[in-house]
Design goal:
The chain starts with a helix and ends with a helix. The protein contains 8 helices and 11 strands. It is elongated. The longest helix has 65 residues. A hairpin with a 5-residue loop joins strand 6 and strand 7. The strands form 4 sheets. It has a 3-stranded antiparallel β-sheet, with no helix packed on it. It has a 3-stranded antiparallel β-sheet with strand order 6-7-8, covered by helices on one side. A 3-stranded antiparallel β-sheet has the order 9-10-11, with no helix packed on it.
């Protein structure tokens, strides 16, 4: 009886622990499957879904994306703006060597053509197979069309030409060109000195032209001022002539007009001497004297009256 119970107990315990183990394994498997069913795509990236190595989905947006675990996988592709920089040499149309030509290209991937890039080139090979040959070739071709002096003075024009050519070439292959820059141009020292001397000479010539124009403008202003003065004098002379003519006309019509003008223009101050007689009315420092003046003038008055007496006697 005792033996039976023990065996019964042992036999009953084995199924219990086995069920627990299986349940734990199932839960663990479910957790693993759930965690492997989702992939997080970060901002600035897009997801590409593969099924046994074949692309079955693209342009998966940032966030949590589902895929079948162990059958499908999602890879992230950086679609943010990237920079490719290179230093090379080039030749201008007048056979001048451009040393240490530094070029910089800003680009990103076209999301709609990303599948084609992956299939034909591979994202990791974009720089070596697309950027390296095209940037160098197109830049050298465009620089070879201009003279060294024009390259120095019109760098932006050449830069825009290279940008447009790169844009047309690369965008058809899924590369969006956002910017291009020629960051450095270096020539031989002798050539750079000749360019500098020419620039200085051009600046000096421009200064002389400005001075000449300034002097011409000054002379022109003087002529204008002289003409204005002459016109003013003529107007003034015409006005005076008209005034004289008007006065003469008025005198012809009215002989007393001149007396009228004297009265109209008198300032109210008496003149210093009045009269035409021998002993006129005279004002000295505000004191008047005449024929009936004070004792201070008796000598003069006596002298003045004696002369007529002698004349009468004669």
């Amino acid at each position: 009886m005792q033996k039976f119970t023990t065996e019964n107990k042992e036999g009953g315990m084995q199924p219990k622990w086995g069920a627990i183990t299986i349940a734990v394994l199932v839960i663990l498997a479910v957790v693993i499957v759930v965690f492997n069913s989702f992939t997080v795509v970060n901002e600035g990236y897009i997801g590409v879904k593969y099924q046994f190595g074949k692309i079955v989905g693209q342009n998966l947006s940032a966030g949590l994306n589902f895929h079948i675990p162990f059958i499908e996988e999602i890879q992230q592709i950086d679609i943010r703006e990237q920079v490719y920089a290179v230093q090379t040499d080039a030749y201008t149309s007048d056979t001048q060597t451009v040393n240490e030509l530094q070029l910089k290209l800003n680009y990103c991937y076209d999301g709609t053509k990303l599948t084609d890039i992956i299939r034909t080139i591979g994202v990791s090979n974009v720089e070596s197979k697309l950027l390296v040959p095209n940037v160098a070739k197109i830049s050298k071709d465009e620089i070879g069309k201009v003279k060294a002096e024009d390259l120095v003075q019109n760098r932006s024009t050449v830069q825009n030409a290279i940008y447009n050519s790169l844009k047309e070439t690369l965008e058809s292959q899924g590369i969006v060109v956002t910017a291009f820059a020629i960051e450095n141009i270096s020539f031989d020292d002798a050539f750079e000195q000749s360019i500098q001397a020419k620039v200085i000479a051009a600046q000096d010539a421009l200064k002389m032209q400005n001075k000449t124009a300034e002097k011409e403008e000054e002379a022109k202003q003087k002529v204008i001022a002289a003409q204005a003065e002459a016109d003013s004098q003529k107007i003034k002379a015409d006005a005076e002539a008209y005034a004289i003519e008007a006065v003469q006309k008025q005198l012809t019509q009215s002989p007393n007009y001149i007396e009228y003008m004297k009265i109209m223009n008198w300032d109210g101050v008496l003149p210093q001497a009045i009269g035409t007689e021998v002993n006129p009315f005279i004002a000295l420092d505000g004191v008047t004297s005449g024929n009936t003046g004070g004792s201070g003038n008796n000598t003069n008055n006596t002298g003045n009256t004696s002369t007529p007496a002698n004349n009468n006697g004669q």
